Amino acid sequence: MVRRSSHAILVLASSIFPSSIQTFQPISTTIRQRHPLKTSSSSLHQQSTLTSTTPLNAVSQQQTFIVDGGELQSFLLHNDNGASSISGGGGRRNSQQVGCLTLVTGTTSSSPRRVVGVQKTAQDNDDYDTISLGNNVEVYEHTLATIPDGISEGDAMSTAAAAVVGIHCAIPKVEEVGGSDDGFFYSGKAVVMGGNDYAIFLADGLATLGIDTSLITTGGANSRNKQVKVLPPAVQLGDSEVEFASHIGQFDSLIDTLSNEQKGIVITDDNPSGGSSVLQLLRERHQCDKYISTLTESQQIVKQDGVLFGPGKANAHAKSMASLSPKQCTPIVPSIGFGSSTLQTLLENNILFSTKDTNPVSVRGWAMKNFWEETSWPRDSSGSGVRFGLPVVEELGEDDLDELFRIEQLELEKNRRTKLSSEGGMDDKEVLVQTKVDDKNPYVTQIAGVEGLAETILSKRRSGVVFVAMRSCRTCKGINPIFTKLARERGSSKDGGESGLMFGKADATGAAGKALGKQLGIVAVPSFVLFRDGVRYGAVSVSKLPSDRLDKAIRDLEAGEEFDTSLEEENED
How far is CA 352 from the centre of its chain? Predict the structure, then answer.
């Protein structure tokens, strides 16, 4: 696969914005590691435990940390660590767009030890036990960790805040040991994208917890943990280059500090990829079930608006976030094991994320280094805009499509239309093959659910034809190559811009698919729904292609004519 560099963009931008632009970065970051690591590649994390019977003195320091953007989205999706045996609070979803957690430090009264933990706020749930610090301050017991000598309380709080999503939520495999909340076995393989200080902290932290960790960066990185494998997006193997994902093979988690492939799409249990081809391919090709984006809203603003107009907007956003009260935010409460296993291990190994931010409310903003690395990251040559190294849909050549057309059109005569409530006639293997064919189709855009329709057609006011099908529908399978040929001849490629008709395919399988079919007024497949400028134009139901009725509907659509309702009548051409 060929990659395309953005070097020319960097040269132009660098000539306009000198290195002093770093003053836009609101937070400076350092990472420290003082002592040799105390954990191995797969290790048991069982630390000194603070319980509800541990007497604590009053609060020493207190700081609130704001979480938003892709980082908040990732927390709401993955705050359960994939451990079904661990109960309470995991995977909560909330429509609010801002989250916050308040960290507090104090000392034990019996044998003076400094501790750090997450404070319970009034709107938090009661799923977890708490410890009172007096003055109506309660701390979640499972988030408490002892602060070792030589580490400041400020560094302990900033490290705890930085570890919640990018480390604790990203841990691939968690096993509870002996039925105790204090002992967990961490294992698995993780990939961290980015060479910034925060990415290095995450990689060092995951490796320290026993996770097989790779750090992917365009500019190299000085990881403190020798267990971390630092790789470029394109890994050199002999005379050829291989995408980092293909080089690594299977991995469990991907932590993205530079972008957000979730792109705000609604992700549900029935639709775990949310319509994102990258997330779907990560699951299919690499068995990666966790995609964690730590992209903040400030980073997203600069990414969208660039360094000319973005920094001012991003800084204004950060300022507005800092003025929020906890009541206006989604409570961020990490799952069981955070204090005694995750945070305690990081602190004892001096894996620290120090912001030196002493403000009562801390907002992780944006950094020029992140912007430059994301901008200069080479893109895949497919034209999809996907960063090189991530999996992409590989194009089928015209010969491949013609062969599919030749073979599958022989099945047309024995096809019948399938009701949305039926299961169709294809077995699991045939369904899997058809799914792979659809994913690789360069001429037809795949549409997932109502959200996918809104994103690809409605919001962009596109005109086009959507083939509503079901994975298990044998009739749809027979029609599919002919529809692809129609899209190739009369439409633009799915990545070829927004001019001309767009040809899409929507899967009516499952709850999300049936909801889409209901929105479109479809009761059986195959059906073809036409749109003009993002508005439903009409629908044609046929069980064979080519179809005179569908051809006429498309001609009328392109000519600006009103839809001929007689074309909706179900009869064979």
Answer: 25
Model-level pTM?
Answer: 0.63
DSSP, res 251: -
Cβ(491)–Cβ(503) below 8 Å: yes
Six-digit token string for 64: 């609130």
For residue 478, with 0-12 CB atoms within 10 Å meaning exposed, 13-18 middle and 19 or more buried, which class applies?
buried
Q: Are 92 and 102 in contact (CB under 8 A)?
A: no
Highest-scoring range by mean pLDDT, 265-269, 339-343, 427-431: 339-343
> How many Cβ atoms are within 10 Å of 308's Cβ, its own excluded?
10
Q: Is the Cα dihedral 535, 537, 538, 540 positive or negative?
A: negative
Instruction: Kindly give, in sequence order, each residue whose CB lies less than 8 Å from that of residue 176, ignoring residues fewer than 6 positions away.
Output: 83, 85, 86, 183, 184, 337
Closest by CA to 503, choosing from 470, 465, 477, is 465
- Cα separation, 69 vs 10, whole angstroms: 25
Q: What is the Cα–Cα distance from 453 to 435, expressed in whole angstroms? A: 18
Please check the confidence at residue 14 and state whether its pLDDT lies above 60. Answer: no
- Strands in 229-231's sheet, in edge-to-edge order, are 229-231, 212-216, 189-193, 253-256, 290-293
Give the tens place of pLDDT for each residue, 528-551.
Answer: 999 999 888 999 988 888 889 999
* DSSP code per residue over 31-47: EE--S-----SSEEEE-
Instruction: Give the pair of three-digit tokens for residue 258.
Output: 């530079």
Q: Which element (helix H / strand E) includes 156?
A: helix 153-163
> What is the C-alpha to C-alpha distance for residues 254 and 290, in angstroms, rounded to an integer?
6
Spatial CB neighbours of 539, under 8 Å, sequence gap ≥ 6:
520, 521, 522, 527, 528, 529, 530, 568
| Other Cβ atoms closer than 10 A to 122 | 8
Nearest-5° Cα angle at 297, 295 to 302: 90
Cα-based angle 247, 249, 251 (whole degrees, multiple of 5): 125
